[in-house]
Every structure is written in structure tokens, then in C-alpha cells.
Specification:
The protein contains 13 helices and 14 strands. The protein is of the alpha/beta class.
């Protein structure tokens, strides 16, 4: 599966600072110090109802991680999946009378268009779950053969008790886990499971559903969590730098993925840092497919909204914060974009070296994009009030905003 084209990242003078990031697993701040190649895995879309602003906010957060790393002169190995076979996709296809594969292909293509418009840096490998099945099947067989998985009426489940570190990503107790499991694709009430929290690794073929050769597992399709593990281990290996996604993935998805990998390899940790973006709300509720309260990037673009304004609307909120979208949020972003473009359009301006340092410091501080925007606002206000005599300043500001915030002025 191919990703989307990369926008050019302008070169900046000097070098950025190492990134400090909030780690969900420890609840504290960690300073990321990857090697020359920084490794990150971000969980991708299930391709229906793409791309809403909740998606965009998540990918914007981890696009900033990439940009900070690039500014430290590192290479970035970024991997993202597409869950192009799963229960929600099949349910939507059945409800709309569209072939599931056609639906997945159409929504993935739209997602690529939106990511391109928003200037999100593409992953090095963009991999679908279907594409990963040849890697998934032997992993499930190895887990089963090692006693970390078992069969129940033809389905294969992972035993969470096979990983001594299970629960360390989310820090939740068993009761909270059980509630979230029921809400987020698990089946804790199914009789016969060794532990109610045990997740599905391989679903045996159901009538009318797509199926693939599972070798000794029998025909069927993969579970949700093992998909990401297979892709991440193939392209990143154990102990990669950042596992990212929305905060709704902390449990069960990231908790289960970590345990799958740790039980499979006998190594710890799966990822060194777990980072999660907040949820975007509309009309008082989290923006979600199930509620139908979605604002789509593609529709905003069709309505003539500049993608740079959409990106500024996202950047105006700290990535870990839950926030509410409204027309006022977008209006503020449009006004900011106009001010910034006016400021950099002049032939000279106030010196911008300190501004570059402020943007770098803000982003290194747990991706504090609102602080970065405020710094640019101050420079633009000074430019509007009294200008300056540095002919290189507007160009430096334009390049810095593009390279570090992904906003083309």
C-alpha cells in the first residue's frame, strides 16, 4: 500500500532541541533520546468515515514529533497502518450495501488526499492489515505454540496472563479494563475464555465474511491488536521510540499490542514511550463515527477552507487536551493565517532568530504548539505595528513555520 507524497521540509539554521514528551505508561515526562534513526509507530484509520478532525488532530500531533526530530538532524522511520479489515468496516459495508474492499479503498484514498492537503509528513511504510496477514499468521501460531494463546470454538485468543507486564501501559485496574474492553471491540462476556480480557488474535471464518488462509489456525481473519504488532515488529523491531495514537487507544489497543509483542519475543518494552492525543468534541460529545457528530477535513476543503487554516485550528490546542470544535475555532485560525501571511509578505521585518528559538523550545516542551503559535503571533504583531529592518526575517519566519509547524505561508 502506498502512502502520500511528502511536502518539502525547509532547512533551518542551527539545530533543534531534544523532545520531552508525556509518557502514558509512567504518567510523567521523558526526554526522548533516540539514535540517529528515530523510530515511531502511529496507529492508522479504520477506513470508513475518514478523515474527521479527530483523526487529523492525532496525525497532526505525531507529525510534530517527526518535525522536531528532523530539526535535531535525525532521520525518522515512521510507520502507520490501515485497519482495512475489521468488524466496524464490515458492519458499515453491510449497512450501506457497498463492498467492504471498495469502501476501504475509497476511504483510504480520501485519507491520503486529506493528509497531503494538510502537509502531514507520510510514513516510510503505510501498511494495510490485509497486506500484513502473511506476517500475522505465523506470529499467532508462535504464540499458541508457546502457550500464550488458545483456541475457543475455532477462534484463537491471546492469554493476557502470559505477559507479566500486562497492565503497565494503561495502569488501569481489572474492572476498568473490563468496561473498556466491552466498549471497544472486546468480548469479555464470552463463555469459555480463560480471562474475560483475553483478546482475539484470529477470528475463524464466519458465513458471508471475507476469509484468508490461516495455515494451522484455519481460514479466517486477523484480530485488531496483532495487526499493528506484526507491522511494527517487521519494520521497527522491539524497543522503538514512540507508540502513538489517540487517547482512546490506550486500552485495549496499545495495552494488548504491547503484551502480544512482549509475550512473543520475551523482550521488554515493546515501545519506550507511549504518547496519546486528546479527543476532539462537537456539540458536547467526543467526535466519533458511532455518534455521527463528525466534521470532515474533505468537506471543509470542499467548502473552500484553506488547509493551512485547518492545521492552525488543530495547532491552537495542546495535543493531549480534549477540546471542542466550533465555527469560532476555525474563524480564529483563518484570522491568524491572514495575519501571519501579511506579516511575512513585507520585504523586511523584526529579527526572527529569537522567534525560531521560541518555536523550538515550545515544541520540545511536550509539543506545546499553542505556545509556538503565540510566539509567532507576537512577531507578527510587532511587524504590523512598527516593522523592522531585517530583510531576511520574513523568509526565516516563513521557513520556520513551514518546517516546524507544517503551515505553508
Amino acid at each position: 500500500m502506498h502512502a502520500w507524497p511528502a511536502s518539502e521540509v525547509p532547512a533551518l539554521p542551527g539545530q533543534g532541541r531534544d523532545l520531552e514528551l508525556h509518557d502514558t505508561a509512567t504518567g510523567g515526562r521523558v526526554t526522548l533520546a533516540p539514535g540517529q534513526v528515530a523510530r515511531i509507530y502511529v496507529c492508522g484509520i479504520t477506513p470508513y468515515d475518514a478523515t474527521h478532525l479527530g483523526h487529523a488532530a492525532t496525525y497532526n500531533a505525531f507529525d510534530l514529533v517527526q518535525r522536531v526530530w528532523l530539526d535535531t538532524k535525525r532521520q525518522v522511520l515512521y510507520i502507520q497502518n490501515v485497519t482495512d479489515i475489521d468488524d466496524p468496516l464490515l458492519e458499515r459495508a453491510a449497512a450501506t450495501g457497498v463492498d467492504w474492499a471498495e469502501l476501504a479503498e475509497r476511504e483510504t484514498a480520501l485519507f491520503r488526499e486529506d493528509m497531503t492537503a494538510l502537509r502531514m509528513l507520510p510514513p516510510e511504510h503505510f501498511v494495510g492489515a490485509v497486506e500484513a496477514i502473511p506476517w500475522i499468521v505465523p506470529m499467532v501460531e508462535r504464540l499458541r505454540d508457546a502457550g500464550a494463546a488458545y483456541e475457543l470454538d475455532g477462534d484463537t485468543y491471546f492469554s493476557v496472563e502470559s505477559d507479566p507486564h500486562f497492565g503497565e501501559v494503561s495502569g488501569l485496574d481489572a474492572a476498568a479494563m473490563r468496561l473498556l474492553s466491552a466498549e471497544r471491540g472486546g468480548d469479555p462476556e464470552r463463555p469459555g475464555k480463560k480471562n474475560p480480557l483475553d483478546p482475539m488474535l484470529w477470528t475463524a471464518a464466519r458465513p458471508g465474511e471475507p476469509r484468508w488462509d490461516g495455515a494451522s489456525l484455519g481460514p479466517g481473519r486477523p484480530g485488531w491488536h496483532i495487526e499493528c504488532v506484526a507491522i511494527a515488529l517487521r519494520h521497527l523491531g522491539m524497543g522503538f521510540d514512540v507508540q502513538g495514537g489517540g487517547s482512546d487507544l490506550v486500552f485495549p489497543h496499545h495495552e494488548m499490542g504491547a503484551s502480544h509483542a512482549q509475550a512473543l519475543t520475551g523482550e521488554f518494552p515493546y515501545a519506550r514511550t507511549y504518547a496519546h492525543a486528546g479527543m476532539v468534541g462537537l456539540d458536547g460529545a467526543k467526535m466519533s463515527k458511532s455518534k455521527g457528530n463528525l466534521v470532515f477535513v474533505s468537506q471543509l476543503r470542499k467548502d473552500g477552507v484553506d488547509p493551512a487554516a485547518i492545521r492552525l485550528a488543530l495547532l491552537a490546542h495542546h495535543y493531549r487536551a480534549d477540546w471542542e470544535y466550533s465555527a469560532a475555532v476555525l474563524d480564529e485560525a483563518r484570522e491568524r493565517l491572514a495575519r501571519w501571511r501579511a506579516a511575512v509578505s513585507r520585504p523586511d521585518g523584526p529579527p526572527a532568530e529569537d522567534l525560531l528559538a521560541e518555536i523550538r523550545a515550545a515544541l520540545a516542551d511536550d509539543l506545546d504548539s499553542p505556545a509556538a503559535l503565540a510566539a509567532v503571533d507576537r512577531w507578527a504583531a510587532t511587524q504590523a505595528e512598527r516593522g523592522g529592518d531585517d530583510p531576511g526575517a520574513p523568509g526565516l519566519v516563513s521557513r520556520a513555520v513551514d518546517a516546524l509547524l507544517g503551515v505553508a505561508l
